[in-house]
Amino acid sequence: MEAKLFCFLEIIGVGYKASTNPQGSILYLKLGFSHEIRLQVASAVRVFCFKPNLICCTGIDHQKVTQFAASIKSCKPPEVYKGKGIQYRNEILPKKQGKKK
């Protein structure tokens, strides 16, 4: 299978990690919850973890790759004050200012 589309996701936060099983069919996410999140990868999508904080989704079908990347991001969307969470590689997030004294 030749990959036409790449979708990179970054995990930002202390202790947040991602990993896959050796076949690449299950994605494991540690996102600060009491349990590990397991996501079953769709058959048309391949997932790689180059680093513990970098996820790469590849495939031929644009809709399935972006849909799976969005489902990964929905597990822990970036929060507006510190920016912790999962975001796309080239995404620019507007940050809010904290409380004033």
Automatic annotation (TrEMBL):
One of its GO terms (cellular component) is ribosome. Transmembrane segments: none annotated. The keyword Lipid metabolism does not apply. Pfam families: Ribosomal_L6. Keywords: Mitochondrion, Ribonucleoprotein, Ribosomal protein. Residues 12-88 form the Large ribosomal subunit protein uL6 alpha-beta domain. GO terms for biological process: translation. The keyword Protein transport does not apply. GO terms for molecular function: rRNA binding; structural constituent of ribosome. Belongs to the universal ribosomal protein uL6 family. This is Ribosomal protein L6. The lineage of its organism: Eukaryota, Viridiplantae, Streptophyta, Embryophyta, Bryophyta.
